[in-house]
Amino acid sequence: MKFTESTDIDHVEPEEAPRYTQRALDNIESILNNGILFSDDFNAKLLTVTFSTANVDVATIHGLGRVPGGYLQVGSNAASIAYDGASANSSSLLYLRASAAAQIRILVY
After folding, report:
1. DSSP letters along 30-69, please?
2. What is the pLDDT of residue 66?
């Protein structure tokens, strides 16, 4: 859910300020009471990366359109840890290695 009220308060007439403020507060309350999801305001992608061999770079398209700032491992089908690959990440590819063969879910941001 996104904040939908205008943030251009300079163009609100003084007599409209209480109504504008109430609408903005109602919008914020609705957002907070319904929960804020990563997809609402967090520029990230959830990926599943398959590592067929341990300690070998795997290039994965991440879809962020920019060089990632980092990643979090959020799940795996085996005892394995993802870590930085030897190649530099780019605006389209994330390079990772894993400590063992596995499918690992990565939240890249």
Report:
1. HHHHH---HHHH---EEEEEEESSTT--EEEE---SS---
2. 94
Of 14, 4, 90, 93, nearest to 49 (Cα)?
93
Residue type (1 letter), 47: L
Identify the H or E element spanning 21.
Answer: helix 17-34
Give the domain ranges of the chain.
9-40, 43-108
Q: Using CA of residue 85, residue 86, residue 89, residue 92, what is the dihedral sign?
A: negative
65 near 44, Cβ under 8 Å?
no
Beta bridge partners of 107: 46, 72
**What distance in Å separates the CA atoms of residue 65 and residue 98, rounded to the nearest whole number?**
24
What is the average pLDDT score of the chain?
88
* pLDDT at residue number 40: 64
Pick out the chain residues at pLDDT < 70.
1-9, 36-41
Cα–Cα distance, 86 to 83 (Å, whole number):
10
Instruction: Please report, as a single letter, which amino acid is at residue 107.
Output: L
